[in-house]
């Protein structure tokens, strides 16, 4: 049935150019798309050429040139005004969080007409975490109308997580960048209502690597040949593969086809599921500030009739829409203002690919370290360790670090940096094994395992048996752990603050400024970075200070001089202030443990 409908859609789409040509001089036409025909406001399974007009009028009030035929080359047409809907941030009293993450901009705006009254501040939902494809910075995704709803809201206005009784619970970040449809009357059709939130620096002691988890999202697993839904907090699996669609304005991206099941978690209604009824609509969201905008290439979603609630309500704006594979397909921004009593209202979302392209971002996924272990049947003390099943996430894995749990005669743990390697243990015992992977996003993930080798005597001969076990482990970012430990002293806090303040700018300059990039590569910066990052997991190991005749001091001297010339005023000022201290520190200490001990003992 689904394949039959898709084929019908293709046949209808073939007639789109003819209809666009016919209507190109009609001033009442806003947009033409290929989607489901509506009868009495309800979507059907019949494909049609949908013509969106500024205002539907009786046929006797239209000239012959303004009339739209009911059939174009045997294909049905459907004339519709932009679908009236309302942005669904909550402008009323705060309601308890029922699932998902509720957010609100921390700002007070006075009513211009009554200076004793405060204007309500909308409450919405933090959809998910995204990562910049250029700077590799992790940010939050929501709607423009949730965090940038008024002219008084400036860049870097604080955004807080909503609690049960107040929004002062936890500061999560700051308003950053928004994308919204234009207000120009000559071109009122926009693509999206979306915004990014610059996340706040984690507080001291917060060293857990962020996961892109949606509270209460659940997941489908296969049991006895059928998918079974398992409730609970679940991580996102990136975004779905985009599909080409064709509208009157040309090719656009969509992330799902009509008839597919989706679900979301929002601040107001929590977990809901529904069905995609249309994928290329023109929506007319009513915004509280009175601005009129049209949004095109919009999907319409209707809640499953078996559930007792709507798919979305006020306060759910900014939720991400996901498919059965936990891939993001859309960004929720509005819901129907009213609907007949015999059906639930529609909710409206932008295809996520349109958002990702506009901001040059990806749905954030940390890498996932996975350990495979095979015991040699001829020599059970010999084990093959394999990290090849590890998953890249939003950045490709560029480094591996294995800790075997066994120590050599000097008391140093035996390490390995290969994806796959063989190791033979010297004797019986229980060994704690770990694998750290580092992605190109400079994000790490840790997996752990235990190897237990038992020695026994059988008929006078010594035999060994080996058991291996994977261990659940909370992933941590070694750099964050190290910096949070430094913050126990004033001088250590200065070092940690410098890194957290400037690391994204320095990373951007290294990747995109030619002068910085060339110096960094010539002085073997990537290799030193890899070695020093590895030292975070073994802080008592001697630091690598020279590679192929190039010293770490040479790298730092050259790079800091160029950064001082090319960086922002804040970065330039801090480099001038701390450059000599940095060079002396690197020259003085032989291990990261010595450096940390010195910083923790030092006075300000």
Automatic annotation (TrEMBL):
Domain of life: Bacteria
Domain PKD: 366-440
Pfam families (UniProt xref): PKD_4
Name of protein: PKD domain-containing protein
Organism: Chitinophaga dinghuensis
């Amino acid at each position: 049935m689904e394949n039959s409908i898709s084929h019908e859609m293709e046949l209808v789409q073939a007639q789109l150019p003819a209809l666009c040509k016919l209507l190109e001089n009609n001033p009442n036409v806003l947009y033409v798309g290929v989607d489901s025909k509506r009868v009495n406001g309800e979507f059907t399974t019949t494909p049609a050429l949908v013509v969106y007009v500024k205002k539907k009028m009786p046929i006797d009030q239209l000239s012959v040139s303004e009339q739209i035929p009911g059939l174009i080359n045997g294909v049905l047409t459907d004339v519709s005004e932009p679908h009236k809907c309302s942005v669904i941030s909550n402008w009323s009293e705060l309601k308890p969080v029922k699932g998902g993450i509720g957010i609100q901009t921390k700002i007070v705006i006075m009513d211009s007409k009554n200076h004793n009254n405060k204007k309500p501040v909308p409450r919405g939902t933090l959809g998910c975490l995204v990562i910049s494809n250029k700077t590799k910075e992790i940010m939050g995704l929501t709607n423009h109308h949730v965090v940038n709803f008024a002219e008084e809201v400036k860049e870097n206005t604080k955004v807080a997580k909503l609690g049960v009784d107040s929004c002062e619970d936890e500061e999560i970040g700051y308003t950053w960048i928004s994308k919204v449809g234009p207000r120009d009357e000559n071109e009122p059709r926009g693509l999206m209502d979306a915004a990014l939130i610059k996340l706040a620096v984690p507080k001291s002691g917060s060293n857990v690597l962020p996961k892109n988890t949606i509270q209460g999202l659940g997941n489908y697993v296969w049991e006895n040949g059928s998918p079974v839904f398992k409730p609970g907090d679940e991580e996102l699996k990136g975004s779905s593969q985009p599909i080409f669609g064709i509208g009157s304005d040309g090719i656009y991206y969509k992330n799902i086809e009509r008839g597919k099941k989706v679900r979301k978690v929002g601040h107001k209604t929590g977990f809901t599921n529904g069905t995609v009824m249309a994928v290329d609509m023109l929506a007319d969201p009513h915004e509280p500030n009175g601005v009129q905008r049209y949004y095109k290439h919009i999907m319409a979603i209707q809640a499953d009739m078996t559930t007792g609630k709507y798919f979305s309500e006020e306060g759910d704006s900014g939720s991400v829409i996901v498919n059965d594979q936990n891939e993001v397909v859309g960004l929720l921004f509005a819901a129907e203002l009213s609907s007949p009593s015999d059906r639930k209202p529609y909710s409206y979302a932008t295809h996520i690919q349109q958002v990702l392209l506009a901001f040059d971002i990806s749905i954030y996924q940390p890498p996932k370290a996975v350990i495979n272990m095979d015991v040699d049947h001829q020599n059970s003390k010999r084990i093959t360790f394999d990290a090849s099943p590890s998953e890249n996430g939003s950045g490709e894995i560029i480094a591996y670090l294995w800790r075997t749990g066994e120590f050599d005669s000097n008391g140093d743990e035996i390490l390995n940096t290969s994806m796959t390697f063989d190791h033979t243990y010297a004797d019986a015992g229980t060994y704690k094994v770990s694998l750290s992977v580092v992605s190109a996003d400079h994000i790490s993930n840790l997996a752990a395992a235990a190897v237990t080798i038992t020695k026994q005597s059988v008929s006078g001969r010594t035999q060994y048996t080996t058991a291996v076990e994977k261990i659940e482990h909370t992933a941590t970012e070694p750099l964050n752990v190290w910096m949070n430990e430094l913050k126990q002293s004033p001088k250590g806090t200065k070092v940690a603050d410098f890194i957290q303040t400037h690391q994204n700018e320095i990373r951007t300059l290294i990747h995109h400024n030619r002068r910085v990039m060339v110096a960094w590569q010539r002085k073997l910066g990537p290799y030193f970075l890899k070695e020093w990052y590895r030292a975070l997991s073994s802080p008592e190991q001697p630091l690598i200070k020279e590679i192929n005749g190039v010293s770490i001091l040479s790298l730092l001297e050259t790079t800091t001089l160029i950064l001082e010339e090319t960086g922002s005023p804040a970065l330039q000022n801090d480099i001038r202030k701390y450059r000599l201290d940095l060079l002396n520190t690197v020259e003085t200490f032989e291990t990261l443990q010595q450096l940390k001990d010195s910083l923790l003992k030092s006075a300000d």
